[in-house]
Amino acid sequence: MAFNVISKRSGKTYHLHARLQKLKGGQEVTLYYFAGVPGPLAIDALPEGYLVSENEKTGLPLLKKANKGA
Asked: Which of these, 6, 15, 43, 60, is most buried using a 10 Å CB contact count?
């Protein structure tokens, strides 16, 4: 089952997804995003070192690094 978050503003459920993106220099990075329906790239757990927050204006969920600035 995909990791999901319910928006406090709209009450809509969002599911966490992850995909690998290859950069021009050849380095691969993992991109995390939320979608309204679980797809094939949905992941089961929140990545280690990340927190979920919500955009106050739109109610959309965001991932932030937990130890930012430390």
From this structure: 15
Q: Do 53 and 64 touch, CB atoms closer than 8 A?
A: yes
Q: What digits encode the pLDDT tens for the residues 38-63?
A: 999 999 999 999 999 999 898 899 99
**Residue 9: CA count within 13 A, CB half-sphere:** 10
Name residues whose C-beta falls within 8 Å of residue 38's C-beta, 6 or more positions apart in sequence.
2, 4, 15, 17
Residues 28, 33: Cα–Cα separation, whole Å: 16
pTM: 0.86
